Amino acid sequence: MSAPTQVLVIGGGANAEHFVSLGSAAAVREALSESGHRVTGLTIRRDGEWETLAGEQIGIAEAIGRLRDSDVVFPALHGESTEDGTFAGFLECVGVPYVGSGVRAGALAMDKWASKLIAEHLGVATARGVLLDRDSIYGDPAQMPLPLVVKPVASGSSYGAARVEDNDALAVAIAEARTIDSRVLIEEFVVGREIDVAVLRLASGEIHIPPPLEIGKGTEEMFDTALKYDAEPNFLLPAQVTPAVGEALRRAARAIYEALGCEGVARVDFFVRGTELVFNEINTMPGMTAHSQVPRMFAEDGVTFAQLTAMLVESAYARGARTT
Ligand SMILES: Nc1ncnc2c1ncn2[C@@H]1O[C@H](COP(=O)(O)OP(=O)(O)O)[C@@H](O)[C@H]1O
Ligand SMILES: [Mg+2]
After folding, report:
1. Is residue 317 pLDDT above 70, yes or no?
2. CA 135 → CA 39, 138, 152, distances in Å?
3. Ligand nearest to the CA of 223
4. 212 alpha carbon to ligand 2 midpoint, in Å?
5. Gyration radius from the chain CA atoms
6. 159: CA distance to ligand 2 center in Å?
7. Ligand 2 centroid to 45 CA: how many Å?
8. CB of 156 shorter than 6 A to ligand 1
9. What are the b/e assignments for 148-174, b being 16+ CB within 10 Å?
10. pLDDT of residue 324
11. How far is the CA of 158 from the centre of ligand 1 (A)?
12. Which ligand is nearest to the CA of 233?
């Protein structure tokens, strides 16, 4: 099997995380060029149409042709209608190897309720929560002590997530979250440190987990959109945890990654309350700039961003070769 050389990086997406994805795509293109790949790019506009990096609109047939001309596609796409398995399904139909998780893992990971149920089944604690579906409620909101967190079941970049101190604010927060997803999660507010773990499956099938990262912020504070993007977030590397907590984090992150059937790299986010882990969520296409959490964690292990993106392309290509 020869090495994959022609990589097509897709950025943008018809969702709220469009601009975050554009940032990831630009960074991935640059990193892959550094490691000697021939890199091209396409953008999915917010209206769902495709365009070249020069801003020229192309039709879907043309886009599919370009996908098929690539050795590997790198979907640097975050959020709804992309990372949730939709785009993986599209690429499966097109028949081209791609970086990252397939349909099932993407869909399960994007659903914060489903991923909670799976984590709990694996023996990993999660925040007490209630699901408000369109017409039904799973759990008893009256039993939930304030403060609470309200968030859309499927979202990202903290859009629609809010801390709620009283019942009046609860109704407002639910209405706000519903503008993003008709299904809404109400959770106990977990007072704890926020620690992320990256899990990568290499081309050999082996799992690589670099040191965890802590989000530097107060334990009562949310890692909200402003903290994420308005200024450079404060990441503490490596997170200072006891060997026992470190081992528990690695085990839990790996178990969730494998139970969902993830591929490529995923970021598994936890709260750590004393020595207790509480799973928060998993991202199957985490932020991909050199300053994002996952590349920073690998850098801590001596793996550069260029090497990380090259490893992702290699494992996608190896997987493609095994399945075709
Ligand atoms: N149950 C919770 N308790 C405390 N903080 C929470 C809780 N759920 C979410 N948060 C805070 O809100 C942020 C965004 O929520 P998250 O579930 O990670 O959604 P997103 O997919 O938008 O990142 C988290 O990083 C965390 O700071
Ligand atoms: Mg998050």
Report:
1. yes
2. 47, 10, 15
3. 1
4. 15
5. 19
6. 10
7. 24
8. yes
9. bbbbbbbbbbbbbbbbbeeeebbeebb
10. 58
11. 7
12. 1
127 Cβ closer than 6 Å to some ligand 1 atom: yes
Question: What CATH number is given for 129-188 in this structure?
Answer: 3.30.1490.20
Q: Once rounded to an integer, what is the mean pLDDT over residues 226-243?
A: 93
Domain ranges of the chain: 6-99+319-323, 107-125+192-303, 129-188
In the chain, which residue ranges form alpha helices assigned H by DSSP?
Answer: 18-34, 60-68, 86-94, 103-110, 112-121, 167-178, 225-229, 243-260, 293-300, 305-323
Q: Which fold has domain 6-99+319-323?
A: Rossmann fold (3.40.50)
Q: What is the pLDDT of residues 151-200, one digit of tens each?
A: 999 998 999 999 999 989 999 999 999 999 999 999 999 999 999 999 99
283 Cα nearest atom in ligand 1: 21
Ligand 2 geometric centre to CA of 70 (Å): 31
Taking domain 107-125+192-303, whether its CATH number is 3.90.550.10 is answered by no
Q: pLDDT tens digits for 81-117?
A: 999 999 999 999 999 999 999 999 999 999 999 999 9
Span 37-77, pLDDT tens digits: 999 999 999 999 999 999 999 999 999 999 999 999 999 99
181 lines ligand 1 (CB under 6 A): no
Q: Where does 166-224 have alpha helices with state H?
A: 167-178
- Residue listed under structure tokens 């507010």: 189
Determine if ligand 1 sits within 6 Å of the CB of residue 129: no
Atom of ligand 1 nearest to the CA of 129: 1
